[in-house]
Amino acid sequence: MEINNNIPQATAKRLPLYYRFLNNLHLQGKTRVSSKELSEAVKVDSATIRRDFSYFGALGRKGYGYNVEYLLEFFRKTLNQDNESNVALIGVGNLGTAFLHYNFSKSNNTKIAKAYDANPDLIGKEVGHVMVEDVEKLDQSLSESDIDVAILTVPGHVAQSVTDVIVKAGVKGILNFTPARLTVPADVRVHHIDLTVELQSLLYFVEHYPLEKK
């Protein structure tokens, strides 16, 4: 993702969401969309959307809204969607297997190109059309690839040791699905996604902050 450093990180994280919705609109044949329509679809308030878009200049016109094709092309270039990005998956358990069978190339330009596991029953087999490699060869295999981002779905107790290996191999971004909080160099970015924490948070909000019926 090629984002100007002056763009707030919160805005940058919402751009793929806008891109996906705009792509759906384009496939439906829609030619323009208002910030209100965008707001209702992506569940982000209109003022935030207009502020996000304002960082990139005049993307729309008052009274007209936004040209879908123009916005789609703009965000395609901004998000570098014209180039395919390969990522590695470390840990082919239940969650990792689900990722491999889904694989991201079906919905955008990102796909899982390499997968690693320690289970001898999996090594050398294809899961979701990706050959599972021995995690013991992770360092050399990643070092010889052009992969900068890895998805971590290993057991929590080995997450840090695996992280140390992939960072040494040149990985600059980690999507961490383990409960471990990883220690990485300053030039490596980690996004933590703890499904248990997210579920507990959702249950708390359902219980204590019920939404009003429309």
Question: What would you say this structure looks like, in words?
Answer:
GO terms for molecular function: DNA binding; DNA-binding transcription factor activity. This protein has 214 residues and is of the alpha/beta class. The chain has two domains: 70 residues, Winged helix-like DNA-binding domain superfamily/Winged helix DNA-binding domain (Arc Repressor Mutant, subunit A), CATH 1.10.10; 113 residues, 3-Layer(aba) Sandwich (Rossmann fold). Helix content is 40%, strand content 19%. The protein has eight helices and ten strands. A seven-stranded mixed sheet has the order 6-7-5-4-8-9-10. It has a three-stranded antiparallel sheet with strand order 1-3-2. α1 packs across α4 and α2 crosses α3.
